[in-house]
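Entry: IclR family transcriptional regulator
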Amino acid sequence: MPDTNTQTVLHTLERGLTLLEAVATADGTATAKVLSRKLDIKIGTCYHLLRTLLATGHVVRLPGGRYDVGPRAASLSRHLQQRSGPSPELAAILTRLHNKTQETSYLSGWYHGTLTLQHYLSGLHAVSVGNLDVGYTGHMHARASCKAVLAFLPHEQVAAMFEGVELAPVTSHTITEYDRFVAELARVRKQGYALDLEEFCDGVSCVAAPFFDASGSPFGAFTVSVPADRFRDRRLWLTTEVREAASIATGLLRTGRLTVPQAARA
């Protein structure tokens, strides 16, 4: 017979983690009443969870009854970033790409069999791309960054991940047939960069280029995300800039030195 106490503890833990995430996304504006309504948690339970998180240092109480993340949560975030976040050198290359294009720019890393969004910088005219945020790993078949990396993996690895698996449509433009997806990866491999033409988010197009470690294996990708109409006008130039960022990163990983190509300095 199931242990009722264990089930209760797990449910309480789940609600506590959900509450902590809601506090973090509210940027210091959340009150107990707001959190209670948003998460459909009884106000008494909400206060109990908040008191527990206060006691452990995962949240702090601000003036006006507002809550924000505390030092324990911030410490956990730093540890996670150290494990899966980009190196300062790769982050600097992302900044260069962002400064040159003024568009929303992303850096993703190939980590434990999936491509994880590690860092991004919003453009001057930022576009909203669903729930895409740091740590995102979903819908690999629909994202330019993922296709840029997958194209350079052994065929059997790609088959193991996608053959016989439903490729869910994210938009009406998403590739959902495995054979078409494999053909798309072959095209990416040939041209050296990947496109997402409104496949992940309606009205938004992306271009991504992979970078490689010293062994020649794909290590991650740089991406820019642009409204589809503006992307059509700037596609060639944006592709050049993304590929330059990837080239600089590949050089860094192969030599240990962060060097901007001579042609890029001219």
